[in-house]
Amino acid sequence: MSRKMTGIVKSFDIHSGKGLITPSDGRKDVLLHISAFNTSESESLLPGIRVEFCRINSLSGPMAANIYVT
């Protein structure tokens, strides 16, 4: 099940394509992967950027899908 959320990018490693988003609702940080972006907005992905995403549950914990920079 996915849930649409907003949050702030906490960290992002351009070399691995992985990072963390801190959800605005105070929940646990969510993993992100560069492949979850729908556009080339990933080039502007820096800590502190506000994003909208769907939170999904994966085997490794909560992950972000369908990420957009807002």
UniProtKB/TrEMBL annotation:
GO terms for cellular component: cytosol. It comes from the Bacteria. Residues 4-69 form the CSD domain. It is found in: Cytoplasm. Keywords: Cytoplasm. One of its GO terms (molecular function) is nucleic acid binding. SUPFAM superfamilies: Nucleic acid-binding proteins. The keyword Cytoplasm applies. InterPro entries: Cold_shock_CspA, CSD, CSP_DNA-bd, NA-bd_OB-fold. This is Cold shock-like protein CspF. It comes from Kluyvera intermedia.
